[in-house]
Amino acid sequence: MSDRIAIIDGIRTPFAKAGTDLAAMKAQKLASIVIRELLDRTAIDPELVDEVIVGCVANPMDAANVGRVAALMAGLPQRSRGYTVSRNCAAGFESVTSGYEKLFCGAAEVVIAGGTESMSNIPLIYNKHMTGLLTDLMRSKSAIAKLKTLASFRPHFLKPVIGVVCGLTDPVCGLSMGQTAENIAMRYGITRDEQDEFALSSHKKAVAARDKLAEEIVAVPVGPDYKSVCEEDNGPRPEQTLKALGKLKPYFDRQSGTVTVGNACPITDGASAMLMMKESKADALGLTPLGFIKSYAYEGLDPAVMGLGPVHAISTALNKAAMELDQMSFVEINEAFAAQVIGCVKLIQCDDFAKKHLGRDQAIGQLEPARLNVNGGAIALGHPVGVTGNRLILTALRELKRRGDDHAIVSLCVGGGQGGAVILERAKL
Amino acid sequence: MNCFSLTLQGDVGILEFNTPNSSANILSRDALFELDQQLDQIAELTNIKTLLIASGKDSIFIAGADIKEIESLVDSKEASKMADVGKQIFDKLERLPQLTVAVINGACVGGGYELALACDHRVAGFADCIKIGLPEVKLGILPGFGGCIRLPKLVGIAKALSIILPGKLLDSRRALKMGLVDRLFYDPILVEQAKTFASEVLAKREVVRRPKRTPLQKLLEGNPLGRKLLFRQARKNVLKSTSGHYPAPLVAIDTIEKMVGKSHQEASQIESAALGELAVSGISKNLVQVFYLDEAYKKRTWTDVTRTPNKVKKVGVVGAGVMGGGIAQLLSKHGVVCRVKDLNQQALALALKTAKDVYAYQVKSRRMKQGQVDAKMSLISPTTTYCGFENVDVVVEAVVERMEVKKQVFQELDQVVAPDACLFTNTSSLRVTEMADSTGRPDKVCGFHFFNPVHRMPLLEIVKTEKTSDQTIATAVSFARQLGKMPIVVKDKEGFIVNRILLPYMNEAAYLLEEGIAPQRLDNIAKSFGMPMGPLELADEVGIDVGYHVARILENAYGPRMKVAATLERIHEAGFFGKKSGQGFYIHKGNQKSVNKKILNHRVHELSVENDEQITKRLIYIMINEASRCLEEGVADSAATIDVGMIYGTGFPPFRGGLLKYADKIGAKNIVADLRDFQNKFDELRFEPSPLLLTLADSSASFYERPKST
Description:
The complex is a heterodimer. By secondary structure, chain A is α+β, with helices and mostly antiparallel strands. Chain A is built from 16 helices and 14 strands. By secondary structure, chain B is of the alpha/beta class. Chain B folds into three domains: 4-280, 2-enoyl-CoA Hydratase, Chain A, domain 1 (Alpha-Beta Complex), CATH 3.90.226; 314-492, Rossmann fold (3-Layer(aba) Sandwich), CATH 3.40.50; 499-699, N-(1-d-carboxylethyl)-l-norvaline Dehydrogenase, domain 2 (Orthogonal Bundle). In chain B, 50% of the residues lie in helices and 12% in strands. Chain B has 30 helices and 19 strands. In chain B, β1 (4-9) and β2 form a beta hairpin. In chain B, α4 packs across α5, α20 (498-514) packs across α22 and α20 (498-514) runs antiparallel to α26 (612-632). The longest helix of chain B is centred in the C-terminal third of the chain and has 21 residues, at 612-632. The two termini of chain B are 43 Å apart. In chain B, 51% of the residues are buried. The A-B interface holds A 26, 28-29, 32-33, 36-37, 39-41, 43, 45-46, 62, 72-75, 219, 221-229, 231 and B 335, 337, 339, 345-346, 348-350, 352-353, 356, 371, 374-375, 377-379, 381-384, 387-388, 390-391.
């Protein structure tokens, strides 16, 4: 039997909506907190850690290669290595699957795979007019030339480019992520009510799962003033109602759209980290793994319907593992948008789509609501893009442990037109 | 002895200073004599155009004059003569026909830098070990080999004073900026580059431009009126920082002022005369004594030398109060990962804030960048459980000063930490043995007492119980040094040394207050003795609640002689906790403080007729008496240990040489006589002379040289 790739344990910060509890914390600081806490909880000798891989989409400007920066901040030995990965929304998966590959081929024996994102700290930048003006100003030699350059200033030069908005727009198809969700809703006739109901259930499940989620969370004293301590996810709303959701205006298509800020995930701050090694190494160190990675897959598709990525990735991951959907104790499809998750569920159960696009004889399988996103999802918890993949794996492994079940599949859609899926395993061999 | 060797390479001579059988180069009488002979020879070598003076030691250029020789000076004329001899040799160096360059590869201090000043040029490397300056005033003397003459000429009066008066040492980059050296070269090729530099200067292809005088400097230094202002300001600053207890910097100012406009000859006489006076003064002798103490205790092993201390990479801190937070900051500053545990997140956040505030000052004063601080802060990880304690090497317990709580914590720790981990307690006054006995590893338990504020106070009291192993002590001592602290090892008895000796002093102050002495007068008397703070100011600073709690512990342990003054109790009950609560003996508003009128109501008498001298004696002798008990009970192994403890732990004035050094100077007989007098006048028990003190008085022995049997 081959040596499985084990996840020993993992930890994450609370997820806080951007601009709220964790707004003052930089991405590198958040990552260093979870890495430090992971080292403490697993009591592993830091000298053994070979590689730190951190998913991050908006790498902070003051921390080039945030993975390495965070590793050193957390007190890992200088000889350990670190890098940063981005597969956009799947960056938190990518760190784990990169770690898998490193371990599998023997390039490392102990890996910390994590994710960090401070969407609060994604900067506004000068637009190209202002940048041009400043460059010209530097080149202008004489005072008169400088004055002339300054005279070319126009008020619209001050309109900033908003980093977050740019990041959430696909440059190739020109659509914002919300618009790609509208595309799916339109194509498969997903109504506003369906989406709002889905959003409500996400909140309800997340609120009900507070105690479960607390197991995977480390409290974060909020610097630099340390006046508060962020102890739990601040997204889930116990008081959320359909009526309240129904009052929201469609955000991306004011007239005929159905996607609102209420049935989409909020932009969020957070970080997470997991300790990975081969099963044999864990045995040698006397560590009990939380679980194993059975298989994983990434698949590309039309960026304009990027939200359907999970369907493709789930299909491939199941094929690789030679498993069926009904063998999964539960299924996670990351909730970027309610419309997109609902669309995925429809297609997973659709024979036609399976035949046409997945090379299958029939649909992937039946996906009952009771098996989907059992502890709530990103609509309630939030979606720090570099972190979510990590959280999905962490939450799922802990849920498998609680259930005493063997397998689960977690997946997410990726801006730019991709899907990712990972099959997790707890079974003893 | 052959300290100097001359090698010739073409027209370059390299005079290498390399003292045989010694790690340092020191300008002893013998070495100076040898240098003198070498210079005579070199002056004759007409084919040599350049002379480099270099060091054969790795990280030392010249570590200054021989302190032992300075210490032995008792006659001021003899001292002046010694300075004259050195100056004449350096003058000879200055007059050499060759171009002379000092090649500074390491410590270049005192006489060493004065030698460099006599060269035409000074070049240095970049290494961290390079420290340049004239620290003579720290030993109560002044630069006597021409430093007071040449440095002002080189860099101007104001800059010279800013170097000489505080006696501070500069790294090579700052030395270059100040004009103390002319060029910096890469360390591995320093001598080669110095050679090239010299030949370029000779060929006039390279011109050394010294930092220009600023307009303000010219205005101040270029005319008599400006200079008068400059010297007056310098005196004012010195008086402010030394309260006039240290004559050396003041004499240095006078000396440099007198030299203005004088010939080299006259200036030399002025400098030597000043040195002669200072070198034989009691204060200089005391400062030299403290210097020796410092040197010895920095290296003192305290256990069997062959023992290798355990490595400390990760530390658990229990208790996130002011001390816990301060300790965490210190640990992280030195790159030690620490896991801080307290009962709730709010306490932990406060500890992080304590640490952050210390770092904030580092950023403000540009010693660290924000990113570096963020990285250091990230080494501190808070927790409400013992999770993460499994792999700590050491735990420092800093919970509330209550024995039941401490014992409970030690029991818990004993269960969670690895079997070979050491458990240290930061208790300031409770018995460590009792805590040790609540664990299954009493050999790995010791006291590890930091002083508040942790980042500023240099002393660390390490408390060895009957059961503490030497291995644990070796680890504690080396760990203390790793954290940049000065450790002393003492035995386990309530209050150990510093608090046990200091608390009676603060208590006595409370009695004096009760008798009607005005608070400011009381504090001023202590300060004019040389204490950095008056006892009441100090109480306000550390917190009257804390002080009172410790005083109570000591009273319980030592009985009526430590009876807490009733005033202290009443003030404590009234909720005046000092600076942190806004009012204690004083009312604190920002940096302002005024006497807290409300406490005056707690006094028994309105007025006191005691004179200042008697008050000083009551405050100081009560400490001496308690220190004497510490010695006779073996809590401290020597008078030197107590003096190190009091100087580093309480700021006891170094110019007094130390508490017991001071006692020795007064004489046990005189102290006993005064204590007897106080017994009659004030309190039979409080002033009861200790048996050791009585023995010393009878045998006319001293604390430093007491018969072995006592």
